[in-house]
UniProtKB/TrEMBL annotation:
Alphabetic keyword roster: Membrane, Transmembrane, Transmembrane helix
Residue ranges of the TM segments: 41-61
Name recorded for this polypeptide: Uncharacterized protein
Source organism superkingdom: Bacteria
Comp. bias (Basic and acidic residues): 361-372
Region (Disordered): 349-372
Organism (species): Nocardioides bizhenqiangii
Length: 372
């Protein structure tokens, strides 16, 4: 009986017609911009919401369950270093390597389904043609995604299998949430009119924070409900666990993105760079490092526990370090990878054989969206 039931279910599943989600005719505009910033990484579900003219239309893949998202969330990114040289990506420490079939890697995003790699014709963080994407699963399988964008900002949430971004479509800003496991749009929500072509953005749970160009106000998009409201967040960049980096009274500060309440303030120069999970923040003083006397090995920086305000001190230029998916810091050296616990400051190292002909300028580290 059990085998007969399985055969019937298999037959029904094979014959089930699953319509693809509709696609829009997209007009992409680009504006070159260069800004050092950091990254966030993306929930669940096979149902999508498409908002057109104020209406919310549900898109499904023939199943009203959330099983696909639950499966993705059960396979988190490892807590080891993620970095790349050229098109070679080390997705879970130096012992796990995958090759991206493209000219260059631009950046890497942490998601619950694996490491999403943004790649294209050159390694530049912005500019230089189309931005293509591939998912590297925890097992090391490289899956080319259908997602292709031009001159826009992307973000992810380490606990979810999504990439989020904004794009201009017929003069309207639309926020897109792309499911990297289903290789399809999960949601598209219209925010409002725009004359811009790029949009700072973060995804944090059910909320996408998006800014309509540098000068315009920030909106909070509930991408599951398809609703939009003005945001109290001081920035649309790098919102993680409801926290966002800003400046208050001339001091690097972390605030609650919803209320503006100060969570951590540091009476020093620089800015606070949040970890992908939002638990820790690295104090980065790039201008100070540029004029620091002495070798890089003598430089130091602090990593703060956002909840307690305590900090540990690590060695080297702050911007040479990347974040692991679970909030530790790592540094890629000539022949070793050093990983440090952000809570204790304890560090471990493991040997690393840099790819032949690899140049230091080719290095991209996980946890940072933009490189200089």
């Amino acid at each position: 009986m059990t085998e007969r039931l399985k055969q019937l279910l298999d037959s029904e599943a094979h014959d089930l017609a699953v319509p693809p989600p509709p696609t829009d005719s997209v007009l992409r505009q680009g504006r070159s911009f260069r800004r050092r910033n950091r990254m966030t990484a993306a929930g669940a579900g096979l149902a999508a919401a498409l908002v057109v003219g104020g209406s919310v239309v549900a898109l499904t893949a023939g199943d009203d369950t959330d099983q696909g998202a639950n499966d993705a969330a059960a396979q988190p990114v490892g807590g080891n270093a993620v970095f790349s040289y050229g098109n070679q990506v080390f997705y879970d420490g130096p012992g796990h390597q995958a090759e991206i079939d493209d000219k260059a890697v631009k950046s890497m995003f942490y998601t619950s389904a694996g490491v999403v790699v943004r790649h294209g014709n050159n390694p530049n963080s912005d500019g230089g043609g189309p931005q293509r994407f591939s998912l590297i699963t925890p097992a090391g399988e490289v899956q080319r995604l259908d997602l292709v964008t031009e001159e826009t900002v992307h973000a992810s949430d380490v606990d979810q299998p999504y990439i989020a971004y904004g794009e201009a479509v017929d003069g309207e800003l639309q926020v897109v949430v792309y499911d990297v496991t289903a290789n399809a749009e999960e949601a598209r929500v219209t925010v409002g009119p725009t004359s811009e072509g790029w949009f700072p953005v973060s995804i944090d749970g059910d909320t996408v924070y998006v800014q309509n160009g540098y000068e315009n106000a920030i909106s909070e998009v509930d991408w599951k409900a398809g609703t939009v409201r003005p945001s109290e967040s001081p920035s649309a960049w790098e919102v993680a666990d409801g926290r966002v980096s800003t400046e208050v009274g001339g001091h690097p500060t972390l605030v609650d993105a919803s209320t503006g309440d100060v969570l951590l303030s540091v009476n020093k120069a620089g800015y606070l760079d949040l970890s992908p999970d939002g638990r820790y923040a690295q104090l980065v003083d790039e201008e100070g490092e540029m004029f620091e006397a002495g070798p890089a090995s003598e430089m130091e920086f602090e990593v703060f526990d956002v909840a307690t305000g305590s900090s540990v001190t690590l060695s080297g230029p702050a911007f040479d370090w990347g974040w692991t998916a679970d909030g530790d810091m790592f540094n890629v050296g000539e022949d070793e990878i050093v990983t440090c616990d952000s809570a204790t400051g304890d560090c471990t190292s493991e040997p690393f054989n840099k790819p032949p002909a690899a140049d230091a300028e080719d290095l991209k580290v996980g946890g940072r969206l933009y490189e200089s």
